[in-house]
Structures are given as C-alpha cells and as structure tokens.
Amino acid sequence: MERVNVGLVGFGTVGGAFYRLMQANGGLFQSKFGVAAGITAVAEKDPGKVQAAFPGQKVVPDYRTLTADPSIAVIVELVGGTGVAYEVIRGALEAGKHVITANKALLALRGDELFTMARKRGVELRFEGAVCGAIPIIKVVRESLVANRVASILGIVNGTSNYILTRMSEGSLSFAEALGEAQAAGFAEADPTLDVGGGDSAHKISLLASFAFGGWIDYRELLVEGITGITAGEIEFASSAGFVFKLLASARWNEGRPAVTVFPALVPKDHPLSFVRGEMNAVMTRSDFMGPAVFIGKGAGGDPTASSVASDLGDLLLAIQATGRRDTARFDPARKLELFPRDQLEHRYFFHFITANRPGIWAAVTTRLADNGINIESVHQKWEDRSLPSDLYVLVDEAPEARARQALADICAAPGIDPHSRYYRILAE
C-alpha cells in the first residue's frame, strides 16, 4: 500500500486542529483513495507543546529538517504571517515538494511568485483553507466552474466584520460595543485592523478573482474600505429604508476588465447575502452555464480550516496516485490583469451629511448634487436636539465613483456641513 508522508510546520490553532483531524480521520484517505497518508514529523519552535499533547510524535524545531527530508512529499504550512511562512513554502517548493497552506495574507502578497515557482517545479501549491474556512470556494472556482465563464463573485468573506455588523443591526450596539463583544467571543483579534479595515477581505477576493479570471490580481490595487466609521444611526436608517449593512468583497467583469472591490454596502433585505448572520461567511458566484449559486459556511476557526486543509491533501493524494505530479493552478500568475478604473465604477449611493440646523442646508446639498449630475431618490433628516448637528440622509441614483466623491467634497466645503460626512454604496443586485 502506497503511503504519502506529510510534514506539518506550525502547531497553533489551525495546525493543532489539523493534527487532531489526521489522528481521528487520517485512515479515511486509505479507505477512500487507496493511499495512506500521515504526519511523519512536526516542525514547531516549541517542541514541548507538541510532545506534551501527543507523546511520541517526532518534533523538530527547524522546518528545514522537513523540507530537506526526501521521504516527505507534502509540506503543510500553518505558521501564518508573511516572513517565516514564505521561507517555508519557498524552501519546500525548491525541494520539489507539494505545499498546502491556509495563509491568504502571504499568497495575496507573493502568490504570483510562489505559484510560478510551483508550476516550474511541477508541484502543487494548494490553499483551500486560506479563503472562507470551511466553504470549499477555491475548489468551486478551480474545478466546478472550469467549463464556465465566471461573470462575478460577491461575498461576505470576513466573519469578524459580519459578526460586528450583525450585532450592531440586531442589538442596537455601537461599533465599539460590538467589537468588544466579538473580541470577548473570540471572533476578533486584539488588533482587529486587518478584519475591520477590509484588508483580510481584500486578500481573499484577490485570490478568488485571480483564479476565476485567469491572471494575477494584486490586492494592493483594489478599492478597499472598512467598517470602522459606520454608526448606529446609519444602520437604523438603512434598516428603515429596506437595507442591511454588509462588508462585501466583489469581483466582476466590467467592459472586458475585472472590477475588484471591498467596501461596506447597503444590501437589500431580500437579497440572499442579507440573511448571512454572525460570524458566518457566504459567497455568491454567477457564471454563464451554472448561473447564480450561493455557498454558506463558517469562515474561520481551527476545525473548519483544518477540514479545508485536509481536503487539499485528499486532492493531492489523488493527483499523486494518478500521475505522480500535476499542475492544477489553471491560471497564469505571470499574467497581470489590469483592473477596471475605480473612478469609473458606478453605484447607487447613500449619503450621510452631518449638518447645522439652519436655513439653506438642504439647498446647499441638493444644488451641489445636481451640479455633479447626481439625481436624488429620497431625503430624510433627523435630529434629537435642535441645538446639536442633525443627520441628513440622502439616497441617490446610480453615478460614477469619481462624480460621487466630487459631490461629497463640494458639499463638505459648504458652510454648515461637517467634513466628516460620508457616503456608502448600495448593492445593485
């Protein structure tokens, strides 16, 4: 019976969960594929942590022991970060080993280089666990949609932000209060910047879009905005107007070029993504023959991510058994895709103006919107105390991004308008 030896690098939350999964269910690979697989050795800078939990397991402090071992065919990198993890993956690929990782930050930053290296070496670099945890969305894009032209990908791909927005909407909490709850529940890091600022979502959607559209998309070129500025009042008004706030990651073809963005948006309450609550993730794909499809599941956590890592291992076992080695990237990492200009993207908008309570304010707002060719759908003004600034909420028709931004700048320059006024986009679907 053939056996494939696996080297595990990293024994944190996900690494420990993957090890436990292999201990509990590793035998399923042999019964299902006819190929045995097991963790031969673990590289962990604190070997005692592994040995205390699993006495007898071979543990080494230096990952290079595993990448240099000719008996190990697959390296599973679960260190995290973009420093040591890069050296682990690069070293494994140079040694001609297959690699499985859940490191979306590293792949978004240096994936073009690493995927190119894997292709040249004739090995695979798999990363199902890097995007949306337990949702097999990479497999869907790479395999299920291989005979489709993908028109768009739209999703909630960050569980932390979705949990916060859910609690703000359903619990009438402020952003700070909802973030505190998320941190207490273990859904948010002590430093949540990458999640609530949109960076984590940008990493994920750039990878999905790269595989869906066949070339490399650099996350640093995307329009990315986070949720930190959203107020309870904005959420309350959005709800009264028939919307919920969601942090959306989007990739779609627009006039022959990909438009890829991350920003908080008002989602109609009857849209499938509006029902995705708490820390859950969801991704909607649209393609020419499959049509629309929605995939929902846990977006993070040790066990769900470990399950996705194991899924990659199963696919590798089939590949090794069938042909020895193969390249299934199905996209060219050296082909850099030019994005559709963000200033030309068109949306409907929700403007929130913070204004003084005095005559002429509405005229200043409506005149400057009209001067920028933006048509108003509805206006709502709310104040608790006439001696304090009021909130003026304006919904407008579709307009280019550049025009909406210029209108906001013009209005904020008018007397009586707070410069912290802002706008959000409305999901068109």
Brief synopsis:
The longest helix has 22 residues, at 302-323. This protein is 38% helix and 28% strand.
How does this structure look, described?
This protein has 429 residues and is an alpha/beta fold. The protein has three domains: 166 residues, Rossmann fold; 152 residues, Dihydrodipicolinate Reductase, domain 2 (2-Layer Sandwich), CATH 3.30.360.10; 85 residues, Alpha-Beta Plaits, CATH 3.30.70.260. It has 15 helices and 18 strands. The strands form three sheets. Strands 7, 9, 10, 11, 12, 13, 15, 16, 17 and 18 form a ten-stranded mixed sheet that branches. The longest helix is centred in the last third of the chain and has 22 residues.
Give the CATH H-level superfamily of the largest domain. NAD(P)-binding Rossmann-like Domain
Largest sheet: 10 strands, mixed
Task: Supply the CATH architecture of the largest domain.
Answer: 3-Layer(aba) Sandwich
Q: How many structurally independent domains?
A: 3
The poorly predicted ranges are: none
What is the CATH topology assignment of the largest domain? Rossmann fold
Number of strands: 18
What's the overall average pLDDT, rounded? 92
Structural class, by secondary structure, is alpha/beta
Rg (C-alpha, Å): 24 Å
Q: Measure the end-to-end span.
A: 52 Å
Q: β content, as a range?
A: 25-35%
The level 1 CATH classification of the largest domain is Alpha Beta
Based on the model shown, name its key terms.
429 residues; 28% strand; single chain; Rossmann fold; 6-stranded parallel beta sheet; Dihydrodipicolinate Reductase, domain 2; elongated; Alpha-Beta Plaits; alpha/beta; 10-stranded mixed beta sheet
